[in-house]
Amino acid sequence: MQGFNIASVQFSRAGKIFDFSYNEIALSIGDPVVVETERGLSLATVVKLDFAFDFKNSDRKLKSILRKASPKETTPPLSPLPEDVVKFTEDKVTKFKLKMRVLKSEVQFGGNKVIIYFSAPGRVDFRELVKELAGGLKARVELKQVGARDETKLLGGMGICGREYCCSSFLREFVPVSIRMAKNQNLALNPTKISGGCGRLLCCLTYENDVYTELRQILPPRGTRVSILASGEEAVVMKSDLLNQSVMVETDGAKQYTLSLKEISISTLSRGKPETESISGETWGEDIDLSTLTDHL
Questions:
Q1: 52: which strand partners?
Q2: 130-183 pLDDT, tens per residue?
Q3: Which residues, at least 6 apart from 136, have a Cβ–Cβ distance to it below 8 Å?
Q4: Domain ranges within the chain, ordered by starting residue
Q5: pLDDT score of 116
């Protein structure tokens, strides 16, 4: 039974991880390597090493790592500098009157390859721009258009929590996020508090959502009639505290108490159906402007 070595690599900090095979190369985590991609040779960093058995019926085909990157390939060249590439590109964008914003540039292979990231409201015909850039920079030029979330990931910054953006520090892929998650966690219905630097919903809304969902299922919903075990009084659930697993109830005598689940029981005299709180994105927040926010899909 044979097998093959697998190296998982990333092309940028907190970027997506891709698997490549390799043979007769001594690799360690953190090594810079040269790999063949659909757009040509690229630099990458090894983040994980593995081994897989190569069964005859396996249809897994991986591209190979060509070699370890040399010091010349990994050392930033003295010319052109990334900031000079951005300035030069911006001048050419103005010349061709293209509706695009130059975000960042990467200079690889000792200045022989340049990657330029940009954002634009739609598709851009940059064929003439690439020719001009390649001639002026004396290098192979690759232009990559990115969306709002990837733009923020590239530029980086500080979130409302005071820490570096999750997407630019450790979050490798964007996961689905919806407004329903904010409601599920009883967060303030304020777009400025539930949106990130990209103008989209905060990625961190997903971190604790499963816990809130589980805790919500344990508590009786608003409107449920319960019995207070200590006094035997009948009451109605007015509000719930998910994290403390307690409810605020109001008795028929208009007295209010905050009780834990151990201090109440569902009343057999419950009248009608409890007023279950909907957390659907279509049934809340109608009085605020959420037009600037979109779900992560």
A1: 4
A2: 999 999 999 899 999 999 899 999 999 999 999 999 999 999 989 899 999 999
A3: 88, 92
A4: 3-68, 82-146, 222-276
A5: 94
**pTM higher than the cut 0.85:** no
Residue in the block written with tokens 């996961």: 175
Helices (H), the chain: 71-74, 82-96, 127-137, 148-155, 166-169, 179-184, 191-194, 209-218
Q: What topology does CATH give the domain 222-276?
A: SH3 type barrels. (2.30.30)
- Exposure string over 77-94, b if 16+ CB within 10 A, otherwise e: beebebeebbebbeebbe
Structure tokens that stand for 287 in this block: 């009085």
Tokens of 176: 């689905």
What CATH number should be reported for the domain whose range is 82-146?
A: 3.30.300
Give the integer Cα–Cα distance in Å for 94 and 251: 70
The total of other beta-carbon atoms located within 10 Å of residue 12's CB is 15
Structure tokens at 11: 């092309």
Q: Are 246 and 261 in contact (CB under 8 A)?
A: yes
One fold for both 82-146 and 222-276?
no
| CA separation for the pair 230, 277 (Å, rounded) | 27
